[in-house]
Design goal:
about 220 residues; alpha/beta; Methyltransferase, Methionine Synthase (B12-binding Domains), Chain A, domain 1; Rossmann fold; 2 domains; 5-stranded parallel sheet
Length: about 220
């Protein structure tokens, strides 16, 4: 199969909730020596984004989202060792990053991919999980004193909670020392600018690139 065919197979596997197909696509990607990041971003993640859009428009329901996420996870699990091989090691001390899915959002696969890519890039990642209350996110930022706090939102109904995180970070006096990062399917650079977030990224590899290019806050 060609690269485009394998990537399309990964996307379709998510849209069809087909775990076996997702695993096959991942295995074929490895056999063909494809870039696992591209397969994840252009295949699995793109499919998951489409599922999220359908869920938002009420054309799909929560069980569909869960089934799609399970298919994506199956494929990503196979590609994860290849991702780790591409990095010298995990957590090399570039700084701590707290990451989670925002309050009200149960989706985690995209956030988990970002967390993995940050680890490969040498960051010490504290992955809080999904549906984390805004006050708890800020509480963890106080405890860990990270260089960055990243929140992911897959739905427009939950992305508004990223505003709350920004406000609570300011109230806690953490904005001067911590980079706030936002992402997720409905999130845009315009939204990040509007709420005062320091960094927006469309996908995992872009998040690493942009964070690497930023000077840590004092």
């Amino acid at each position: 199969m060609s690269e485009n065919e394998i990537i399309e197979k990964a996307r379709q596997a998510v849209l069809e909730y087909d775990i076996e197909m997702a695993e096959e696509a991942a295995e074929e990607a490895i056999e063909e020596g494809l870039d696992p990041v591209e397969v994840i971003n252009e295949g699995f993640t793109k499919g998951m984004t489409e599922v999220g859009d359908l869920f938002e428009s009420k054309k799909l329901f929560l069980p569909h989202v869960v089934a799609a996420a399970n298919a994506m996870t199956a494929g990503v699990d196979i590609l994860t060792p290849e991702l780790e091989k591409s990095g010298a090691s995990l957590g090399e001390g570039k700084g701590k990053v707290v990451i989670c899915s925002i309050e009200g959002d149960i989706h985690s696969i995209g956030k988990d991919i970002v967390a993995l890519m940050l680890k490969i890039a040498g960051y010490d990642v504290i992955n809080l999980g999904r549906d984390i209350p805004c006050v708890d996110i800020v509480g963890e930022a106080k405890n860990h004193k990270p260089m960055g706090v990243a929140t992911s939102a897959l739905m427009t109904s939950t992305m508004v909670n990223q505003i709350t995180v920004e406000e609570l970070m300011k109230e806690a006096g953490l904005k001067d020392s911590t980079i706030t990062m936002v992402g997720g399917a409905p999130v845009t650079q315009k939204w990040a600018d509007q709420i005062g977030a320091d960094l927006y990224s469309e996908n995992a590899s872009e998040c690493v690139e942009r964070l690497n290019a930023m000077e840590p806050k004092s």
